[in-house]
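Work Package 3 (structural annotation) set out to generate three-dimensional models for the target panel prioritized at the project kickoff. During this period the team completed the workflow that converts sequence records into discrete structure tokens, so that structures can be stored uniformly alongside our sequence database. As a representative example, we reproduce one entry of 291 residues exactly as it appears in the project archive.
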Amino acid sequence: MKSAISLLSAALLLASSAQGAQHMQKKHARRQGVSATFTPAPTTTTAAVPAPTSKAPGSTIKRGLSFNDASLTKDFTSSQVSFAYDWDSTYQGALPAGVTFFPLLFSAAPEHSDQWEANANAAIAKGSTHLLFINEPDLSSQGNTSPQDAAQQWMQFMQPFAGKATLVSPAITNGAPPMGTGWMDDFLAACDKLGCQVDAIAAHIYDSATNVAYYQSYITDLGTRYNRSVLITEFGASGTVAQQQQFLQTMVPFLDGLESVSHYAWFMTAVDNLVNADASLTPLGQTYVAA
């Protein structure tokens, strides 16, 4: 897997300059593109979609939604997804009943951090169970923060919420060190010196829809490596829609069955991805909730 990860790291570095126009609209911290080289699938040629299923009563739903526009989440239900987030600490509109919002501090920049304390407290008061921190700090076009600076910022912005919610690490890419796990190792080492309480690990992963074994190995290793629960807050897979559907039919049950993973969200709840323009689910969206 080392060669695959190295190739991805190169792609990530290229993406950081080529996509400088940016992944995020700075004011609202909205996601505009994926972190890695990722080819949207054509909208033709889909596989048969299994009938939608619901979890048995009392079972844990790990599946979630990443979104920019909350109105596009309306056709999902709390029997299919349990949480949603939008790369920001608040959102406009409404989420499906019973779906929990996870606020995220995108970076320590004032346009994000000035309102963080108030927004995080408001989200917790409304039922948020997890607080997310720094989107892809190991990528210059995203959070772009050193491990040492991130640890200092954690103590300022996250540590005050210890015991009030599950505090989730910065969300790393799956680039090769010093990105990815190399960045996370250094962050946790810096945190150990400062006394940070980091309850869970967040990570993103992108590759080919045909490379399921890599996803499974990488995600499994995160839980083993860090001995904490893992949130895969972005994952995507390049290929045709049929290949992506086949990928999800394998990966969703895998993630549901992997004890170390507490939550996961496909990238993303957007038109021509999981949903159509009227917010109805595409064949890929139907597979995501039925797998």
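DSSP finds eight helices and eleven strands in the chain.
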